[in-house]
Write a structure and sequence with these properties.
Elements (H helix, E strand, L loop, with lengths): L11 H6 L20 H21 L17 E11 L2 E10 L5 E4 L3 E6 L4 E3 L4 E3 L6 E4 L4 E9 L6 H4 L1 E10 L7 E10 L8 E3 L2 E2 L7
Parallel strand pairs: 6-11
Antiparallel strand pairs: 1-2, 2-8, 3-7, 4-5, 4-9, 8-11, 8-12, 9-10
């Protein structure tokens, strides 16, 4: 009796996996690829890049110190301090207190003039710059004060016809480099005539102690 021939049919599924009539066992599957050592290195490089970008964004990477801003008119509270006088000339400390919540600086001379009336009409010429104090940058922490010296003479020491004595109500003060002023009460008689009895304003210095020497 003849043996029936065995026909090996390959289905599409077998073609996909590979078709073989060999009775030999198929070779073992390939080992999974080794983990690339560059993966860790790449991860570290990414972390370094992110850290650098963050530092730059916050300004810490530059290493440049932030400059202390100057004191603006709204940062300051002004008032008259101690005074002294001799031979018809008076010296009064005008105090600048930092009323803000941040540190700021003052440098140079304020603009000062006498005023009168409800509208703050200027009396006489503005104070000229002078005195013996040198200009220095004064750093004011919140609550701390500096001062300038207001040097002036009483109108009674001048000829009335030349002086035109006028009652004043106070001082109009512009802090250094500012365009907004502050009124400081200080009554008396001053010359209204231009160029007569022009007062002197000194450079701003640290502290509140009056020292016109």
């Amino acid at each position: 009796m003849k043996r029936a021939a065995i026909v090996l049919l390959c289905t599409p599924l077998l073609f996909a996996a590979g078709c073989s009539a060999s009775s030999q066992p198929s070779s073992a599957p390939a080992a999974p690829p080794a983990v690339s050592p560059t993966t860790s290195a790449t991860g570290k490089a990414t972390a370094t890049t992110t850290a650098t970008a963050t530092a730059t964004a916050t300004g810490k990477a530059s290493g440049k110190p932030v400059a202390t801003p100057r004191c603006h008119t709204g940062d300051l509270k002004l008032k008259i301090g101690d005074g002294s006088g001799a031979a018809g000339t008076s010296y009064v400390a005008l105090l600048f207190t930092n009323a803000s919540d941040h540190t700021c600086t003052l440098y140079g001379y304020p603009g000062v003039s006498w005023v009168t009336g409800d509208q703050g009409t200027q009396v006489g010429s503005p104070f000229k710059r002078g005195g013996t104090q040198k200009k220095v940058t004064v750093t004011l922490k919140p609550g701390k004060a500096a001062h300038t010296i207001v040097q002036s003479s009483d109108a009674g020491f001048f000829d009335a016809a030349e002086c035109t004595p006028t009652a004043v109500r106070g001082l109009r003060v512009y802090p250094p480099d500012e365009t907004a002023s502050v009124f400081v009460s200080s009554t008396g008689n001053q010359c209204a005539a231009e160029g007569v009895d022009v007062g002197t304003i000194w450079a701003i210095t640290p502290g509140t102690k009056l020292d016109p020497s």
